[in-house]
Fold this sequence. Notes:
This protein has helices at 12-21, 34-42, 60-69, 81-87, 127-139, 157-163, 178-187, 208-212, 239-244, 262-276, and strands at 2-5, 28-32, 47-52, 75-78, 96-101, 117-122, 144-148, 172-176, 191-195, 214-216, 226-231, 247-250. By secondary structure, the chain is of the alpha/beta class. Strand 3, helix 3 (60-69) and strand 4 (75-78) form a beta-alpha-beta unit.
Amino acid sequence: MLVERITSKQNxxxxxxxxxxxxxxxxxxFIEGIRLIEDALKAGVHFESVAYSLALESTERGAQLQDxxxxxxxxxxLVPQQILDSIADTExxxxxxxxxxxxxxxxxxxxxxxVPLLIIxxxxxxxxxxxxxIRTAEAAGASGLITLRHTVDPYNLKALRASMGSxxxxxxxxxxxxDEAIQSCKERGIKIVASRLPSKNRVVLEDAAxxxxxxxxxxxxxxxxxxxxxxxxxxxVSEDISAAADMFVHIPMSEGIESLNVxxxxxxxxxxxxxxxxxxxxxxxxxx
Length: 288
């Protein structure tokens, strides 16, 4: 890392940090804080630029991170704390922010498993939910995650924090058309499993053939190649997904509970799949 001293908020590099933070350069990702930057470094993410203040050296962990970054081929800037504060998204950025390349995966990349276990996020809106789902998906041994169009960006800073670095390791294909995701699953023999509320929580009348494909999640066979679809927080999976689904699963709930948080539902479904697969987790490779 080649380090320069910058003392002006009008410096082009400082302006670039702000542009990336607000999402103006989609191929790049803004990250901050020691833990998230450590995770990106360990995952082999490409670093473009790093800005830090003397506050980074105030802890042993921060000083170690600074030493590690000196061996990374990127641009570095030592800045006063007030400039770092003007760049950062939080009030306590821990003395460091960075710009890294956005991980990129084609939809075919997430199917790279003998028996795929996928998550499809169908227009989820909360960055905390998508981040938690990515973290759980990696922990449960999922092959990857697909976000359909109009789903929140899994690489925005709030989602990245919630994923605790998993978004840098788990293959995530983003902004995929719904029909493309459905077709890709069908072509590869991957069953589409749609999560939904228990029948007692629904008030619409449904075709008997659809009802026949529904079961409690613990009774569904998740040992075969499956893609579990999680729908929008307020409305559930889309009609197109429902029409294409090979089976529906629901999580039993006690009286008076309308629904579970989507991230909590994802945890139950993913770990049921992991249990059925005897918790055979494969080692996750870093990016090259």
